[in-house]
Structures are given as C-alpha cells and as structure tokens.
Write a structure and sequence with these properties.
Strands 1-2-3-5-4 form a five-stranded mixed β-sheet, covered by helices on one side. Helix content is 66%, strand content 10%. Strand 1 (263-268), helix 9 (276-296) and strand 2 (302-308) form a beta-alpha-beta unit. It is built from ten helices and five strands.
Length: 366
Amino acid sequence: MVVTPRWLLPAGLGLLMLLVGLSWVQTIMRGCDCAWPFAGGGILVVLCLVIVRAGPGRPAEVAALLAPVAIAALTDLAVNSVGWFILVLYIAFVALTLRLWPGIVIWLASLSVVVAAAFTSPDPGWPNWLAAVTLVFWSGWAARYRIEVGERLHRAESAATAAAALAERQRLAADLHDIVAHTLAVTVLHLGGVRLALEHDPKEAAAGIAEAERLARQSMAELRKVVSVLAEEGSDPAVVAPQPTAPRLPELFEEYRTAGLEFDASVDGELSAVGPTSGMVLYRLVQEALANASRHAPRCPVEVRVRISEEGAVRATVSNPLPDRPPRHNGGMGLRAMADRVRMVGGHVTAGPEDDRWVVRTELPA
C-alpha cells in the first residue's frame, strides 16, 4: 500500500486553484464572456473535491468523467489557455488513482473534448494538447503498473521471509524438544541406576551422578544457544551449534548404554556414507525413539537396527516391548517433529504397535 504524503493533497488543490485563477485572468484579458469560464472553473473545483472526498470508486469515476467538460468551459475553447494544462495534470491524476477501464473512458472523453475544441477553434496548437494528454495518461499507467508490481514483489518477498523464519523457528523448537527429552531420559536412567547402586557400590553411584551432571551441563549449553537465537530478533539460526549427523550415532548409543538402558544396536554399512541432512534426521529420529522408549517402557530392552546402502540410503528400525500401561498422551510433538523432518528429506516413517512391540521404522534417501 502506497502511503501518500500529507502535504500532497493540499498542495494539489492549491495548484488547481492557482491554475483556475490564471485561466480566469487570461479569459478576462482576452475580453471574452466570463460566464462559462467562471462556471466551468467552479464546477471543476467542486468535482475535484468530490473525487478526493469519495476516494477510488464509482462516484469518483463519474465525477472524473464530467471534469473534461468543465475544463472545456473553463478555457472557453481557446487553445492558448492555461486551463488545458489543468487537463494534462488531471489525466495524470486519473492514470495514477482510478481503475484502468474507467481511466481509459475518461482519457477518450478528454481527447473528444480537445478534438471538439479544435473543430470549434481551428489552431495548429491542438495536436500538441492531444499528444500531451495521451502521453501523460499512458506514462502514468506505466509508472503505476511498475509501482504495483514492485509492491506485490515486496509483499511476496516479505511473506516468503516470514514463512522461512517461522519454519526455522519451528525447527529450533523441535530441536529444543529433542534436547530436553533426550537429556531427561538419560538423566532419569542414571538416577535410577544411582538409587540402586547407592547402598552397595558408592563409586558406581558417584559415576552415575557425574555422568548425569555432565549431560545436564551439556544440554544447558545447547539450550542456551537455541534460546538466544529464538530471543534475538533478526538473528541467524545458522549460528546455532552444528547439528549432529550419522557418525555420532555410536556416541548416542554409548550415552544410553552408560545410563543403564538395556540396549542392542547394530549398524550395517558405513555411517559416513550418509549425507549431512539425512544423517541429522536419522540421528534426531533415533534420539527421539530412544527417549520415548526409556520414558514409556523403562527397564525394557530396546533394539536398534540401521542398514546403510553404498549410496547412503538408510533403513532404520527402533523397537521396544509395549509397556504394561499405555503411556499418557502428551501431544505427540516429538513424533510430529520426527515425521516433519523425515518428510523434508523425502523419506518415510511409521510409528506404532506391531504385535507386542512399539516399532519406529524409517527410510531415508541417499
């Protein structure tokens, strides 16, 4: 939307009054009958006020169609009148403000008035006014079209930027969820082991507490980075710490194994063959599946099977026995984020019960 400067309207009306006054002076100096010029000038001023008051729309277009006739009366059909300059400025205003087809009708009406004046008062100067009216009208439309295209492009770019920022913040929110879920799951496992080992093996208990503390500090550092990006307007999400990829899966397995999760993991293929994007999705998916397994089916054995082709395509399965009690529904944000990530890289994921196990399966392209 174009913001019109406040000074433009009073300046335009002031210029109109000045030109009408000059036209009246010319008429008086020529010794002509002043009735029609004064009536035409007065009607023209009223019509312009109606157009400004009504704004773009049918009343303004009807008023604008009558204005060329008022200008003809103002000029007393004299070719050297200042009033025809008003017609040129007026047709520029029509091109910049009114709709195309009403504008074309008013442009043709203006040409008709000039042609009629040329027949009434033959003079070689009339073609100049015809050319001026035509040139100004279509130049105004060209300028208006360019302005409108630029505004549409700007709005489209703004919408695309906002959508990209929203998508990135949603991704960060999903990362936030994954970090918290993973840390809490592993910490709970460590604390459970500490509780069992506290009486008979204080060293093992101390090691469990130290590992839980390390994970908490690591997660706090990652959370601080994510929150700082979310809090800073205009910050670049790319500055967040590098995303984990497939080669870091053994570290993830070791964290859960150290925390006491009964765990059987196997990888068939080279983790380094998985691309960075698919590798990040695979890591986050396995991380979320393990966090869910440790939360909803604690002390149950978990199986992870990862198969990687030579081209880097991945098939992965994470399964655990179904818990005795169905888990409470928590909104499923982790599952939704998992599905969104897999979908973004063109993969496929399913999660649900199969016989007596909860199974998460995914296929990721190379």
